[in-house]
Design brief:
Order of helices and strands of chain B: HHHHHHHHHHHHHHHHHHHH
Number of helices of chain B: 20
CATH architecture of chain A: Orthogonal Bundle
Shape of chain B: globular
Helix content of chain B: over 70%
Shape of chain A: globular
Largest sheet of chain A: none
Oligomer: heterodimer
Structural class of chain B: mainly alpha
Number of domains of chain A: 1
Strand content of chain B: under 5%
Number of helices of chain A: 4
Radius of gyration of chain B: 23 Å
Largest sheet of chain B: none
Structural class of chain A: mainly alpha
Largest interface: A-B, 19 and 28 residues
């Protein structure tokens, strides 16, 4: 898998596709917005968050630290996309 | 990196708290009903005058706070909370509590290596532990209980987040996080996450946040009323000598499990009160009686505790060990979470009662629950994400089985000793 483009919208769209396929099968994509709460809204638990971490690390060739896996960065698609963008920019 | 400032998105926040007299009145009317129910059902007699005082203070505070401009909203809620403190608790305890808080803040704010900050905070905690264990004649015991309630869990969270802050922490953020008004009336307080609280401030339209707060208060009230009914239910005795049939035993065990409604009800209520001031905090419990497996139960009951453990124990342990294998790291991290949960609950009991909880049934409860959750997690991980969703029948059976198992485990946990528990279970021996 080649690293994906760094455009936040592209990152967000890829994340949305992954989240829908993995955790919300059958859900209308329009319902999963960039600011939908994933962790605090009960869509992702801690184990599911690790799956997203693993996906993000592989897809964008970055490494996530323990403190970055929390609600601060992994509660909304927009936050995850911003983290990916920032880490890719380093 | 955390940006702890609440002023980062002020324009959007200001738009979200534009006043509307009609909506304000509607919210106040609902809160008035909630307070009337609180008083009519005499909840204050069981849960304490302090709980009642902070409840009406919060509602009265909301009535004024609502009309303040954004820049004054949070300072006003901090002022209300600090101003109310000496009226709800002993004034000397209140003053010392604030002083201790400021000392912790100074340590956290200082440009020191994180290790030194943690060491200094621990050093400051030592006299508190000694004070709680031995007592200090001229200090009210209430002080130590409050110290435990405010700092035992929230200080580690704040120090953890402090490590990753871009800028030095602000006093207003610190005060808003540690000195929350409902805490004065509810010493067994939910472990609110620092970052979640800061980020949640007026994260949506204030009316929607406050309305959800009212719903949370109502949910809490209903649960507390159910708790009261169960608490006073003489026919559901927990005395082993009064249990003479299987039916009585089952009722007794169900009652013991349902007494947890006190905690879930209180948490719903106090989180609802925080919503009134613009904190869009997530629910603390999600239909925990409907858990369909033990991992599901862990995710639904006391969610703030679970998130606290995930943040400070599970993620750090997993990320440290993940190179040894994903599944092994997750299972080992889960085991560590249960050890930490047992220890911290015992430490919490120490601050609340003065005695470190070291009871065989308590150790057995956390060990068994931990082993069962680890087993459940191993099965889930082995099945992977591709497993089909369970059929309604399978889910119903899972829910019934989980409920039955937890009811039995809870009765063991609440027994003073294994001998007491066996006396309870062997009802046919009575008489």
């Amino acid at each position: 898998m080649s690293p994906a483009p760094d455009d936040p919208k592209t990152i967000a769209d890829e994340l949305r596709r992954f989240l829908l396929a993995e955790f919300l099968p059958g859900e209308d994509p329009a319902n999963l917005k960039d600011d939908t709460p994933l962790r605090t809204g009960g869509i992702l638990d801690s184990v599911a968050t690790l799956k997203v971490v693993s996906f993000v690390e592989q897809r964008w060739s970055i490494e996530i630290d323990a403190h970055e896996a929390g609600v601060e960065h992994f509660d909304r698609i927009a936050d995850i996309a911003a983290l990916v963008k920032r880490k890719r920019g380093k | 990196m955390i940006d702890a400032s609440v002023t980062a998105d002020d324009a959007a926040r200001a738009a979200r708290c534009r006043p509307h007299a009609g909506k304000w009145l509607l919210l106040l009317a609902q809160m008035g009903l909630a307070l009337a129910a609180f008083r009519a059902f005499k909840l204050h007699e069981l849960f304490g005058e302090g709980f009642w005082r902070v409840s009406w203070l919060a509602v009265a505070g909301f009535a004024l706070h609502y009309w303040l401009p954004l820049r004054l909203k949070e300072p006003a809620s901090i002022a209300l909370s600090l101003g109310a403190l000496p009226f709800v608790v002993d004034p000397l305890a209140a003053a010392l509590l604030v002083a201790l808080g400021l000392a912790f803040f100074a340590i956290g704010r200082a440009a020191l290596p994180q290790r030194v900050r943690v060491a200094l905070a621990l050093l400051l905690a030592v006299p508190c532990v000694v004070g709680r264990a031995r007592g200090v004649a001229w200090l009210p015991d209430e002080l130590w209980v409050l110290v435990g309630s405010l700092f035992l869990f929230r200080l580690p969270i704040w120090l953890y987040d402090r490590r990753h802050m871009r800028a030095p922490p602000r006093l207003s953020d610190f005060l808003a996080y540690f000195f929350m008004l409902p805490n004065w009336g509810c010493l067994l307080f939910p472990v609110v996450d620092f970052h979640t609280q800061r980020k949640s401030f007026l994260a949506r339209d204030h009316h929607r946040i406050a309305q959800e707060g009212v719903a949370s208060m109502a949910r809490g009230l209903v649960q507390l009323l159910l708790y009261m009914r169960l608490y006073y239910a003489q026919e559901w005795s927990a005395d082993p000598f009064e249990i003479t049939s299987l039916g009585a035993l089952l009722l007794c065990m169900a009652r013991v499990y349902l007494l947890y409604l006190r905690l879930s009800g209180t948490f719903h209520f106090v989180i609802g009160l925080l919503h009134l001031f613009g904190y869009d905090l997530p629910p603390t419990h999600r239909s925990w009686l409907l858990a369909s497996s033990l991992t599901d139960f862990w995710r639904r009951i006391n969610i703030y505790w679970k998130d606290f453990m995930v943040k400070l124990v599970w993620f750090p342990a997993y990320f440290r060990w993940r190179r040894s294998g994903d599944m092994r790291a997750q299972l080992a991290a889960t085991a560590l979470v249960f050890v930490a949960t047992w220890f911290l609950h015992a430490a919490q009991t120490f601050f609340l009662t003065g005695t470190f909880l070291l009871r065989s049934t308590d150790v057995a409860f956390w060990s068994l629950l931990g082993l069962l959750v680890i087993g459940n997690l191993a099965l889930e991980l082995r099945r992977g994400g591709g497993a089909p969703a369970p059929t309604p029948l399978r889910r119903a059976l899972g829910t019934a089985g989980t409920l039955a198992l937890l009811t039995v485990l809870w009765s063991m946990w609440n027994a003073r000793s294994f001998a007491d528990w066996f006396d309870l279970l062997t009802w046919w021996k009575v008489g």
